[in-house]
Amino acid sequence: MARRPLIVIGSGLAGLTCAWASGPEGCILLTAGALTDGAASTWAQGGIAAALSPDDSTALHAEDTWRAGAFAGDRAVIDRITGVAPEVVRLLVELEVPFDRAPDGSIDLALEGGHSRSRVAHAGDHSGAAVTAAMAQAVLAAPQVDVREHHTVTRLLADASGAICGVEVRRRDGSLEVIPADRVMLATGGMGGLWAHTTNPTTALGQGVALAARVGARTDDLHLVQFHPTALDVARDPMPLLTEALRGAGAHLLSDGARFVDELQPRDVVAAAVWEQLTEGRTVCLDARGIDRVATRFPAVADLTAASGLDVTRDLLPVRPALHYSMGGVTVDDTGRSSVPGLWAIGEVSRTGLHGANRLASNSLLEAVVTGRAAASDAIAWSGAWPRTVEPAGPATIRSRTDRARSGGARSDDGSLLLAQVRETLDSACGVLRDGPTLQAAVDRLEPHVGNDAAYAAWLIARSALAHPASVGAHRRTDSVLPEGVSA
Protein backbone atom coordinates (compact mmCIF):
# COMPACT_ATOMS: atom_id res chain seq x y z
CA MET A 1 0.00 0.00 0.00
CA ALA A 2 1.30 3.45 -0.93
CA ARG A 3 2.43 5.61 1.95
CA ARG A 4 0.27 8.62 2.78
CA PRO A 5 2.01 11.92 2.04
CA LEU A 6 3.75 13.92 4.73
CA ILE A 7 1.76 17.09 5.47
CA VAL A 8 3.53 20.31 6.49
CA ILE A 9 1.30 23.11 7.79
CA GLY A 10 2.86 26.57 7.53
CA SER A 11 5.38 28.31 5.29
CA GLY A 12 7.58 30.18 7.72
CA LEU A 13 11.21 29.17 8.07
CA ALA A 14 10.50 26.00 10.09
CA GLY A 15 7.88 24.69 7.66
CA LEU A 16 9.97 25.55 4.63
CA THR A 17 13.05 23.88 6.11
CA CYS A 18 11.05 20.76 6.87
CA ALA A 19 9.64 20.65 3.35
CA TRP A 20 13.09 21.17 1.82
CA ALA A 21 14.57 18.48 4.09
CA SER A 22 11.87 15.94 3.16
CA GLY A 23 14.16 14.80 0.38
CA PRO A 24 13.04 12.56 -2.49
CA GLU A 25 9.88 11.52 -0.65
CA GLY A 26 8.62 15.10 -0.61
CA CYS A 27 5.53 16.42 1.09
CA ILE A 28 2.40 18.52 0.75
CA LEU A 29 3.02 22.02 2.08
CA LEU A 30 -0.19 23.79 3.13
CA THR A 31 -0.13 27.54 3.68
CA ALA A 32 -3.05 29.84 4.47
CA GLY A 33 -1.92 32.57 2.07
CA ALA A 34 0.75 32.82 -0.57
CA LEU A 35 4.06 31.17 0.31
CA THR A 36 5.68 32.92 3.36
CA ASP A 37 2.78 35.39 3.76
CA GLY A 38 2.17 36.16 7.42
CA ALA A 39 5.29 34.29 8.54
CA ALA A 40 6.92 36.00 11.53
CA SER A 41 10.30 34.62 10.47
CA THR A 42 10.28 37.02 7.51
CA TRP A 43 10.04 39.92 9.98
CA ALA A 44 13.08 38.97 12.07
CA GLN A 45 15.54 41.83 11.87
CA GLY A 46 18.44 40.49 13.94
CA GLY A 47 19.86 37.29 12.45
CA ILE A 48 21.09 33.85 13.49
CA ALA A 49 23.25 33.33 16.55
CA ALA A 50 26.22 30.99 16.07
CA ALA A 51 29.68 30.66 17.58
CA LEU A 52 31.79 31.51 14.53
CA SER A 53 34.56 33.77 15.83
CA PRO A 54 37.90 32.55 17.24
CA ASP A 55 37.11 33.95 20.70
CA ASP A 56 33.72 32.20 20.85
CA SER A 57 32.53 28.63 21.36
CA THR A 58 29.31 26.66 21.22
CA ALA A 59 29.70 26.13 24.97
CA LEU A 60 29.63 29.91 25.53
CA HIS A 61 26.60 30.21 23.26
CA ALA A 62 24.88 27.48 25.27
CA GLU A 63 25.76 29.18 28.56
CA ASP A 64 24.36 32.51 27.37
CA THR A 65 21.16 30.78 26.23
CA TRP A 66 20.85 28.99 29.57
CA ARG A 67 21.43 32.20 31.53
CA ALA A 68 19.08 34.36 29.41
CA GLY A 69 16.37 31.76 29.85
CA ALA A 70 16.54 32.21 33.65
CA PHE A 71 18.08 28.72 33.96
CA ALA A 72 14.67 27.25 33.11
CA GLY A 73 15.53 25.66 29.77
CA ASP A 74 16.41 22.08 28.96
CA ARG A 75 20.20 22.05 29.12
CA ALA A 76 20.57 19.03 26.82
CA VAL A 77 18.39 20.70 24.18
CA ILE A 78 20.31 23.97 24.54
CA ASP A 79 23.63 22.18 24.07
CA ARG A 80 22.35 20.25 21.06
CA ILE A 81 20.87 23.22 19.18
CA THR A 82 23.64 25.72 19.87
CA GLY A 83 26.15 22.99 19.07
CA VAL A 84 24.99 22.77 15.45
CA ALA A 85 24.54 26.53 14.95
CA PRO A 86 27.79 26.99 12.97
CA GLU A 87 26.71 24.17 10.64
CA VAL A 88 23.33 25.88 10.15
CA VAL A 89 25.00 29.12 9.11
CA ARG A 90 27.22 27.21 6.65
CA LEU A 91 24.10 25.53 5.21
CA LEU A 92 22.43 28.91 4.73
CA VAL A 93 25.53 30.26 3.02
CA GLU A 94 25.26 27.33 0.59
CA LEU A 95 21.65 28.37 -0.03
CA GLU A 96 23.02 31.82 -0.93
CA VAL A 97 21.74 33.81 2.04
CA PRO A 98 23.55 37.17 1.61
CA PHE A 99 25.05 37.51 5.08
CA ASP A 100 26.95 40.75 5.67
CA ARG A 101 30.72 40.37 5.42
CA ALA A 102 33.65 41.90 7.29
CA PRO A 103 36.51 43.49 5.29
CA ASP A 104 38.45 40.20 5.40
CA GLY A 105 35.51 38.34 3.81
CA SER A 106 34.38 36.55 6.94
CA ILE A 107 30.79 36.80 8.12
CA ASP A 108 30.23 40.02 10.02
CA LEU A 109 29.03 39.19 13.53
CA ALA A 110 26.86 41.56 15.56
CA LEU A 111 26.52 41.85 19.33
CA GLU A 112 23.01 41.61 20.78
CA GLY A 113 21.53 41.71 24.26
CA GLY A 114 22.32 38.71 26.47
CA HIS A 115 25.25 37.54 24.33
CA SER A 116 28.77 37.54 25.78
CA ARG A 117 30.31 37.60 22.30
CA SER A 118 29.53 39.11 18.91
CA ARG A 119 27.95 36.06 17.27
CA VAL A 120 24.88 37.13 15.27
CA ALA A 121 25.19 36.51 11.52
CA HIS A 122 22.94 38.99 9.76
CA ALA A 123 21.84 40.25 6.36
CA GLY A 124 21.46 43.96 7.03
CA ASP A 125 18.50 44.43 9.34
CA HIS A 126 16.22 42.15 7.33
CA SER A 127 17.85 38.81 8.10
CA GLY A 128 14.63 36.87 8.56
CA ALA A 129 13.36 37.92 5.16
CA ALA A 130 16.67 37.00 3.50
CA VAL A 131 16.92 33.58 5.17
CA THR A 132 13.25 32.72 4.61
CA ALA A 133 13.38 33.83 0.97
CA ALA A 134 16.42 31.63 0.32
CA MET A 135 14.70 28.60 1.85
CA ALA A 136 11.49 29.35 -0.06
CA GLN A 137 13.46 29.37 -3.32
CA ALA A 138 14.97 26.01 -2.41
CA VAL A 139 11.48 24.63 -1.76
CA LEU A 140 10.09 25.98 -5.02
CA ALA A 141 13.00 24.36 -6.85
CA ALA A 142 12.15 20.97 -5.32
CA PRO A 143 9.62 19.24 -7.61
CA GLN A 144 8.75 16.68 -4.92
CA VAL A 145 7.22 19.41 -2.70
CA ASP A 146 3.55 20.04 -3.53
CA VAL A 147 2.93 23.65 -2.41
CA ARG A 148 -0.76 24.41 -1.90
CA GLU A 149 -1.33 28.09 -1.28
CA HIS A 150 -4.54 29.54 0.18
CA HIS A 151 -5.28 26.30 2.01
CA THR A 152 -6.17 26.97 5.65
CA VAL A 153 -6.13 24.00 7.99
CA THR A 154 -9.26 24.17 10.13
CA ARG A 155 -9.02 20.87 11.99
CA LEU A 156 -6.67 17.99 12.70
CA LEU A 157 -8.37 14.60 12.54
CA ALA A 158 -7.61 11.73 14.90
CA ASP A 159 -8.76 8.12 14.80
CA ALA A 160 -10.31 6.10 17.62
CA SER A 161 -6.87 5.41 19.10
CA GLY A 162 -6.02 9.12 19.18
CA ALA A 163 -3.52 9.02 16.31
CA ILE A 164 -3.54 11.55 13.49
CA CYS A 165 -5.48 10.36 10.45
CA GLY A 166 -5.97 13.52 8.39
CA VAL A 167 -6.42 17.27 8.14
CA GLU A 168 -9.44 19.34 7.22
CA VAL A 169 -8.63 22.24 4.92
CA ARG A 170 -10.59 25.29 3.76
CA ARG A 171 -9.63 26.16 0.21
CA ARG A 172 -9.60 29.62 -1.33
CA ASP A 173 -13.15 29.23 -2.64
CA GLY A 174 -14.42 28.43 0.86
CA SER A 175 -14.96 24.72 0.24
CA LEU A 176 -13.71 22.13 2.71
CA GLU A 177 -11.44 19.22 1.85
CA VAL A 178 -10.20 16.34 3.99
CA ILE A 179 -6.68 15.14 3.22
CA PRO A 180 -5.90 11.70 4.70
CA ALA A 181 -2.58 11.74 6.54
CA ASP A 182 -0.79 9.88 9.31
CA ARG A 183 2.18 12.28 9.51
CA VAL A 184 1.54 15.99 10.11
CA MET A 185 4.12 18.71 10.76
CA LEU A 186 2.71 21.69 12.61
CA ALA A 187 4.72 24.80 11.68
CA THR A 188 2.09 27.48 12.20
CA GLY A 189 4.15 30.00 14.15
CA GLY A 190 3.37 31.85 17.34
CA MET A 191 0.59 33.58 19.22
CA GLY A 192 1.64 37.25 19.31
CA GLY A 193 -1.42 38.54 17.47
CA LEU A 194 -3.52 37.60 20.51
CA TRP A 195 -2.12 40.68 22.30
CA ALA A 196 -3.24 44.23 21.51
CA HIS A 197 0.38 45.46 21.53
CA THR A 198 2.52 43.15 19.42
CA THR A 199 5.38 43.15 16.93
CA ASN A 200 3.98 39.95 15.34
CA PRO A 201 1.73 39.58 12.32
CA THR A 202 -1.83 40.08 13.56
CA THR A 203 -2.66 36.74 11.92
CA ALA A 204 -0.43 34.94 14.48
CA LEU A 205 -3.32 33.85 16.68
CA GLY A 206 -2.09 30.58 18.16
CA GLN A 207 -3.91 28.51 15.56
CA GLY A 208 -1.39 25.69 15.84
CA VAL A 209 -1.71 25.47 19.60
CA ALA A 210 -5.50 25.37 19.28
CA LEU A 211 -5.42 22.72 16.52
CA ALA A 212 -3.05 20.51 18.49
CA ALA A 213 -4.71 20.93 21.87
CA ARG A 214 -8.12 20.00 20.44
CA VAL A 215 -6.79 16.55 19.46
CA GLY A 216 -5.19 16.08 22.86
CA ALA A 217 -1.62 17.33 22.38
CA ARG A 218 0.21 18.43 25.48
CA THR A 219 1.20 22.10 25.73
CA ASP A 220 3.60 23.63 28.24
CA ASP A 221 4.92 27.05 29.24
CA LEU A 222 2.24 28.99 27.36
CA HIS A 223 2.57 31.71 30.00
CA LEU A 224 6.19 32.26 28.97
CA VAL A 225 5.98 34.93 26.28
CA GLN A 226 8.64 37.49 25.58
CA PHE A 227 8.03 41.21 25.35
CA HIS A 228 10.42 43.08 23.11
CA PRO A 229 11.48 46.19 25.03
CA THR A 230 11.77 48.49 22.01
CA ALA A 231 8.66 48.43 19.87
CA LEU A 232 8.14 51.82 18.24
CA ASP A 233 5.28 53.43 20.18
CA VAL A 234 3.23 54.82 17.33
CA ALA A 235 -0.36 54.20 16.28
CA ARG A 236 0.31 51.10 14.19
CA ASP A 237 -0.85 47.50 14.57
CA PRO A 238 1.34 45.52 14.65
CA MET A 239 3.91 47.81 16.22
CA PRO A 240 7.15 48.39 14.28
CA LEU A 241 10.15 46.68 15.85
CA LEU A 242 13.37 48.51 16.66
CA THR A 243 15.88 45.70 16.41
CA GLU A 244 18.04 44.51 19.30
CA ALA A 245 21.05 45.20 17.09
CA LEU A 246 20.51 48.95 17.49
CA ARG A 247 21.32 48.65 21.19
CA GLY A 248 24.19 46.32 20.36
CA ALA A 249 25.54 49.05 18.08
CA GLY A 250 25.33 51.66 20.84
CA ALA A 251 21.77 53.02 21.01
CA HIS A 252 20.68 54.11 24.50
CA LEU A 253 17.35 53.95 26.31
CA LEU A 254 16.32 57.23 27.92
CA SER A 255 13.57 57.92 30.45
CA ASP A 256 12.68 61.62 30.39
CA GLY A 257 16.11 62.12 28.86
CA ALA A 258 18.19 60.05 31.30
CA ARG A 259 19.63 56.52 30.93
CA PHE A 260 18.13 54.05 33.38
CA VAL A 261 19.14 50.51 32.36
CA ASP A 262 22.00 48.50 30.88
CA GLU A 263 20.59 48.10 27.37
CA LEU A 264 22.45 44.85 26.67
CA GLN A 265 20.82 42.81 29.42
CA PRO A 266 18.39 40.04 28.35
CA ARG A 267 15.08 41.20 26.96
CA ASP A 268 12.96 40.35 29.98
CA VAL A 269 15.11 42.57 32.20
CA VAL A 270 15.10 45.50 29.77
CA ALA A 271 11.37 45.16 29.05
CA ALA A 272 10.55 45.20 32.76
CA ALA A 273 12.72 48.27 33.27
CA VAL A 274 11.01 50.11 30.41
CA TRP A 275 7.59 49.08 31.71
CA GLU A 276 8.43 50.43 35.18
CA GLN A 277 9.36 53.82 33.74
CA LEU A 278 6.17 53.99 31.67
CA THR A 279 3.93 53.06 34.60
CA GLU A 280 5.53 55.90 36.58
CA GLY A 281 4.40 58.31 33.88
CA ARG A 282 7.75 58.91 32.21
CA THR A 283 8.48 59.02 28.49
CA VAL A 284 10.86 56.32 27.27
CA CYS A 285 12.78 56.75 24.02
CA LEU A 286 15.55 54.97 22.16
CA ASP A 287 18.38 57.26 21.13
CA ALA A 288 20.14 55.87 18.07
CA ARG A 289 21.55 59.20 16.91
CA GLY A 290 25.08 58.34 18.04
CA ILE A 291 25.38 55.24 15.84
CA ASP A 292 27.72 55.84 12.91
CA ARG A 293 25.90 55.62 9.57
CA VAL A 294 22.76 54.42 11.36
CA ALA A 295 20.44 54.94 8.37
CA THR A 296 22.62 52.92 6.00
CA ARG A 297 23.46 50.22 8.54
CA PHE A 298 19.80 49.84 9.50
CA PRO A 299 17.81 50.74 6.38
CA ALA A 300 14.67 48.86 7.44
CA VAL A 301 14.61 50.78 10.72
CA ALA A 302 15.16 54.04 8.84
CA ASP A 303 12.24 53.24 6.55
CA LEU A 304 9.80 52.21 9.27
CA THR A 305 10.60 55.25 11.43
CA ALA A 306 10.24 57.52 8.40
CA ALA A 307 6.82 55.96 7.75
CA SER A 308 5.83 57.20 11.20
CA GLY A 309 7.21 60.70 10.63
CA LEU A 310 10.46 60.14 12.53
CA ASP A 311 14.10 60.41 11.46
CA VAL A 312 16.35 57.78 13.08
CA THR A 313 19.39 60.07 12.57
CA ARG A 314 17.84 63.05 14.36
CA ASP A 315 14.89 62.04 16.53
CA LEU A 316 14.44 60.25 19.80
CA LEU A 317 12.25 57.21 19.09
CA PRO A 318 9.36 56.56 21.53
CA VAL A 319 9.24 52.92 22.62
CA ARG A 320 7.26 50.51 24.78
CA PRO A 321 7.34 46.74 25.34
CA ALA A 322 5.24 44.65 22.97
CA LEU A 323 4.57 40.94 22.69
CA HIS A 324 7.28 39.44 20.54
CA TYR A 325 7.85 35.69 20.97
CA SER A 326 6.39 32.56 22.56
CA MET A 327 8.76 30.31 24.48
CA GLY A 328 6.01 27.78 25.20
CA GLY A 329 3.81 25.82 22.84
CA VAL A 330 3.11 22.25 21.80
CA THR A 331 5.46 20.10 23.89
CA VAL A 332 7.86 18.04 21.76
CA ASP A 333 10.88 15.80 22.10
CA ASP A 334 14.23 16.11 20.30
CA THR A 335 12.72 14.96 17.00
CA GLY A 336 9.69 17.26 17.21
CA ARG A 337 7.24 14.55 18.23
CA SER A 338 4.25 15.67 20.30
CA SER A 339 2.18 13.55 22.67
CA VAL A 340 -0.21 12.69 19.80
CA PRO A 341 0.97 9.89 17.47
CA GLY A 342 1.64 11.24 13.99
CA LEU A 343 1.88 14.90 15.05
CA TRP A 344 5.17 16.81 15.04
CA ALA A 345 5.55 20.50 15.93
CA ILE A 346 8.44 22.71 14.82
CA GLY A 347 9.44 26.34 15.10
CA GLU A 348 7.66 28.80 17.35
CA VAL A 349 4.51 26.70 17.75
CA SER A 350 6.59 24.13 19.62
CA ARG A 351 7.98 24.04 23.14
CA THR A 352 11.43 22.50 22.69
CA GLY A 353 13.06 23.66 25.92
CA LEU A 354 15.67 25.78 24.11
CA HIS A 355 14.44 29.13 25.35
CA GLY A 356 13.57 28.41 28.96
CA ALA A 357 11.74 31.42 30.42
CA ASN A 358 13.16 34.02 28.05
CA ARG A 359 14.50 33.75 24.50
CA LEU A 360 18.05 34.83 23.84
CA ALA A 361 18.15 37.23 20.88
CA SER A 362 18.55 35.62 17.44
CA ASN A 363 18.05 32.03 18.58
CA SER A 364 14.63 31.66 16.92
CA LEU A 365 15.72 31.36 13.27
CA LEU A 366 18.34 28.88 14.43
CA GLU A 367 15.70 26.80 16.22
CA ALA A 368 13.43 26.86 13.15
CA VAL A 369 16.10 25.36 10.90
CA VAL A 370 17.31 22.78 13.42
CA THR A 371 13.83 21.54 14.39
CA GLY A 372 12.60 21.55 10.80
CA ARG A 373 15.46 19.32 9.66
CA ALA A 374 15.26 16.97 12.64
CA ALA A 375 11.50 16.46 12.34
CA ALA A 376 11.68 15.85 8.59
CA SER A 377 14.35 13.20 9.08
CA ASP A 378 12.31 11.53 11.83
CA ALA A 379 9.07 11.54 9.84
CA ILE A 380 10.72 10.06 6.76
CA ALA A 381 12.20 7.22 8.81
CA TRP A 382 9.08 6.68 10.93
CA SER A 383 7.75 3.14 10.89
CA GLY A 384 4.60 3.73 12.95
CA ALA A 385 5.80 3.24 16.53
CA TRP A 386 5.26 6.19 18.86
CA PRO A 387 6.94 5.63 22.23
CA ARG A 388 5.80 7.99 24.99
CA THR A 389 8.59 10.56 25.05
CA VAL A 390 6.12 13.37 25.87
CA GLU A 391 3.59 12.97 28.65
CA PRO A 392 -0.10 13.22 27.67
CA ALA A 393 -2.08 16.41 28.09
CA GLY A 394 -4.19 17.06 31.14
CA PRO A 395 -7.85 16.41 30.29
CA ALA A 396 -8.87 19.87 31.54
CA THR A 397 -6.95 21.54 28.70
CA ILE A 398 -8.70 19.64 25.89
CA ARG A 399 -11.74 21.41 24.50
CA SER A 400 -13.62 20.79 21.26
CA ARG A 401 -15.27 23.26 18.95
CA THR A 402 -18.63 22.12 20.25
CA ASP A 403 -17.82 23.99 23.48
CA ARG A 404 -19.57 27.04 22.12
CA ALA A 405 -19.89 30.46 23.71
CA ARG A 406 -22.50 30.72 26.41
CA SER A 407 -22.44 34.23 27.81
CA GLY A 408 -20.66 37.48 28.52
CA GLY A 409 -18.50 40.03 26.78
CA ALA A 410 -18.63 41.59 23.35
CA ARG A 411 -19.64 38.83 20.98
CA SER A 412 -19.71 38.02 17.30
CA ASP A 413 -22.74 36.49 15.61
CA ASP A 414 -21.76 32.96 16.68
CA GLY A 415 -21.53 34.08 20.31
CA SER A 416 -17.75 34.04 20.59
CA LEU A 417 -15.75 36.99 21.88
CA LEU A 418 -14.68 39.46 19.24
CA LEU A 419 -10.97 39.15 18.48
CA ALA A 420 -10.45 42.72 19.69
CA GLN A 421 -11.84 41.71 23.07
CA VAL A 422 -9.61 38.64 23.24
CA ARG A 423 -6.59 40.82 22.49
CA GLU A 424 -7.58 43.39 25.09
CA THR A 425 -8.08 40.65 27.68
CA LEU A 426 -4.62 39.15 27.19
CA ASP A 427 -2.96 42.54 26.98
CA SER A 428 -4.30 43.59 30.37
CA ALA A 429 -4.01 40.22 32.15
CA CYS A 430 -0.88 38.69 30.57
CA GLY A 431 1.25 41.76 30.00
CA VAL A 432 4.73 42.47 31.32
CA LEU A 433 3.39 42.27 34.90
CA ARG A 434 0.64 39.87 36.01
CA ASP A 435 -1.33 39.13 39.17
CA GLY A 436 -3.62 36.31 40.28
CA PRO A 437 -7.00 38.11 40.49
CA THR A 438 -6.60 39.67 37.03
CA LEU A 439 -5.56 36.34 35.53
CA GLN A 440 -8.51 34.57 37.15
CA ALA A 441 -10.87 37.18 35.68
CA ALA A 442 -9.32 36.61 32.24
CA VAL A 443 -9.74 32.83 32.51
CA ASP A 444 -13.37 33.28 33.54
CA ARG A 445 -14.04 35.69 30.70
CA LEU A 446 -12.47 33.50 28.03
CA GLU A 447 -13.70 30.09 29.15
CA PRO A 448 -17.25 30.37 27.78
CA HIS A 449 -15.82 31.01 24.32
CA VAL A 450 -13.28 28.22 23.87
CA GLY A 451 -15.17 26.91 20.84
CA ASN A 452 -13.38 29.71 18.99
CA ASP A 453 -9.71 28.99 18.27
CA ALA A 454 -8.37 32.44 19.22
CA ALA A 455 -10.31 32.51 22.50
CA TYR A 456 -9.25 28.91 23.19
CA ALA A 457 -5.56 29.69 22.72
CA ALA A 458 -5.91 32.82 24.86
CA TRP A 459 -7.69 30.81 27.58
CA LEU A 460 -4.88 28.26 27.59
CA ILE A 461 -2.33 31.07 27.97
CA ALA A 462 -4.17 32.82 30.80
CA ARG A 463 -4.82 29.50 32.52
CA SER A 464 -1.11 28.65 32.34
CA ALA A 465 -0.14 32.05 33.77
CA LEU A 466 -2.62 31.64 36.62
CA ALA A 467 -1.24 28.19 37.42
CA HIS A 468 2.32 29.55 37.83
CA PRO A 469 2.43 31.90 40.84
CA ALA A 470 6.24 32.17 40.89
CA SER A 471 7.98 34.79 38.75
CA VAL A 472 10.55 33.40 36.34
CA GLY A 473 12.15 35.07 33.32
CA ALA A 474 9.56 36.87 31.23
CA HIS A 475 6.70 35.69 33.51
CA ARG A 476 6.55 38.32 36.23
CA ARG A 477 3.88 38.08 38.90
CA THR A 478 3.47 41.11 41.17
CA ASP A 479 2.06 38.66 43.74
CA SER A 480 4.90 36.20 43.13
CA VAL A 481 5.28 33.15 45.34
CA LEU A 482 8.88 31.98 45.75
CA PRO A 483 9.55 28.46 44.42
CA GLU A 484 9.96 25.77 47.06
CA GLY A 485 13.44 25.80 48.57
CA VAL A 486 14.17 29.42 47.56
CA SER A 487 14.50 32.05 50.23
CA ALA A 488 14.02 35.77 49.83
UniProtKB/TrEMBL annotation:
Stretch list, region Disordered: 393-413
Pathway stated in the Swiss-Prot or TrEMBL entry: Cofactor biosynthesis; NAD(+) biosynthesis; iminoaspartate from L-aspartate (oxidase route): step 1/1
An annotated Gene Ontology molecular function: steroid dehydrogenase activity, acting on the CH-CH group of donors
SUPFAM superfamilies, sorted: FAD/NAD(P)-binding domain, Succinate dehydrogenase/fumarate reductase flavoprotein C-terminal domain, Succinate dehydrogenase/fumarate reductase flavoprotein, catalytic domain
Keywords in alphabetical order: FAD, Flavoprotein, Oxidoreductase, Pyridine nucleotide biosynthesis
Occurrences of domain FAD-dependent oxidoreductase 2 FAD-binding (ranges): 7-365
Domain of life of the native organism: Bacteria
Biological process terms in GO annotation: 'de novo' NAD+ biosynthetic process from L-aspartate
Enzyme Commission number: 1.4.3.16
Segments of skewed composition (Basic and acidic residues): 400-413
Catalytic activity: L-aspartate + O2 = iminosuccinate + H2O2
Required co-factors: FAD
Job description of the protein: Catalyzes the oxidation of L-aspartate to iminoaspartate, the first step in the de novo biosynthesis of NAD(+).
Assigned protein family: Belongs to the FAD-dependent oxidoreductase 2 family. NadB subfamily.
Protein name, UniProt field: L-aspartate oxidase
Naturally occurring in which organism (per UniProt): Flexivirga aerilata
